[in-house]
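Re: that chain you flagged

S.,

Sorry for the slow reply, it's been a week of failed gels. I finally had a moment to sit down with the sequence you sent. For the record, here it is as I used it:
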Amino acid sequence: MRRGGGRRHRRRLLPSRVETLADSDPRVGQFIRQRALSAINRPQGQIRILGRTRAPEKVGSFLLDTARRFTGGAGGRLVLPMSRYDIADYLSLSVETVSRTMMT
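Prediction finished late last night. Pasting the structure tokens below so you have them in one place:
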């Protein structure tokens, strides 16, 4: 569910339909390419984060990546989209380590 109570619906489009949409309008094509590249880069970012050996590096990389994704790099306050338990699971760390690292 999205904030505000609205539901977000996703549809699967056939590749031929996506190509037709991209060809129909350059802005649509650019949007589709940007989304596809983001989808490719996201797992690569996760691999980089998990490849870090120390907890502070993992947590720091996660926070910087999350800030870029959710604030567009504008800075300011970051509201994390997940709990510390979820972050710990995502980073393969204990929740105590994540909490301790965020507090220092």
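What I noticed first: The radius of gyration is 18 Å.

Talk soon,
D.
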